[in-house]
C-alpha cells in the first residue's frame, strides 16, 4: 500500500509516465447476429456466438457492455473524455503514507 502511495507522491517526470493502475488489456468482441428485442410475452434474445476482434486498453470505471470494434471503442472513450472534461471537479490528493498508517492501522502489524 505504501509503495503505491509513494509512486503517486513522486513529482511528475516527462520521461517516466504515470500509468493508472486500474487499466487493463481486454479482448474486443463483436456480435455475429443482431440481438432480438423483447416483445410482450417474450424475453429479449441474443446469440452467444461472437467474433474475436482486436485487443484494447480499458479502464474498469469505463464501460459495462460489449464493444465490437476499436473504432467504436475510440468513439466511446472520446465522448466520455469530452463529457468528463466539461464536468470536471478538483481532486484533493492528500492521502499520504502517514495518513495511511493512521487510517489503516488495523492492517499494520504491531511492533
Task: Describe this structure as you would to a colleague.
This protein is α+β, with helices and mostly antiparallel strands. Helices cover 29% and strands 17% of the residues. The chain has one domain. It has a two-stranded antiparallel ribbon. The chain is elongated, with a radius of gyration of 21 Å.
String of helices and strands: HEEHH
Q: Count of DSSP helices?
A: 3
Give the beta-strand count. Answer: 2
Q: How are the strands of the largest sheet arranged?
A: 1-2
**Spatial gap, N to C terminus:** 18 Å
Which residues sit in consecutive blocks of at least 5 with pLDDT less than 50?
A: none
Which percent bin holds the helix content? 25-40%
Largest sheet: 2 strands, antiparallel
Task: Tell the overall outline.
Answer: elongated
- Give the tally of structural domains: 1
Structural class by helix and strand composition: alpha+beta
Mean pLDDT: 76
Keywords:
2 strands; about 110 residues; about 30% helix; single chain; alpha+beta
List the helices and strands and how they pair.
Elements: H1 2-9, E1 23-31, E2 50-59, H2 70-86, H3 97-103
Antiparallel strand pairs: 1-2
